[in-house]
Specification:
The protein is α+β, with helices and mostly antiparallel strands. It has a single domain, classed as Protein Transport Mog1p, Chain A. It contains three helices and five strands, in the order βααββββα. The chain has a five-stranded antiparallel sheet with strand order 1-5-4-3-2, with helices on both faces. The two termini are 29 Å apart.
């Protein structure tokens, strides 16, 4: 994006049949701390990911002396070939102070709207 670095991550893993979206999302949020250190939650909201109910989190953290903005979106999605479910999360991290990245989160959301379930 305008020559500025953007980190995008996608994770897909098996999830127990009895797991709820809230439980799976709480586990994903908990996993942010070892990676990013102290995380300040900005906004937690409901959305869609690949046509499935999803939860999302906007957060700030420090990378050394610099502030970073992250977004995590997660959903429990059906597997294409069988009746099992999987956790799907998509995240991004940016330096929101960079002028070239001012609209990145809107672009990121638009990109994710194009994902559809199998």
């Amino acid at each position: 994006m305008g020559g500025e670095p953007v980190v995008v991550s996608i994770q897909r893993r098996d999830v127990p049949e009895e797991a709820t979206l809230a439980e799976a999302f709480a586990e994903a949020v908990k996993a942010l701390q070892p990676v990013h250190g102290e995380v300040q939650i900005i906004r937690h909201y409901e959305t869609l990911l690949a046509g499935n109910a999803a939860l999302a989190l906007d957060f700030h953290f420090r990378a050394g002396l610099e502030e970073r903005h992250g977004r995590l979106i997660g959903a429990i999605v059906p597997c294409a070939d069988h009746n099992e479910r999987q956790w799907l999360s998509v995240g991004c991290v940016i330096d929101s102070e960079k002028p070239a990245l001012k609209t990145w989160l809107l672009d990121f959301d638009s990109m994710l709207e194009g994902l559809t379930a199998p």
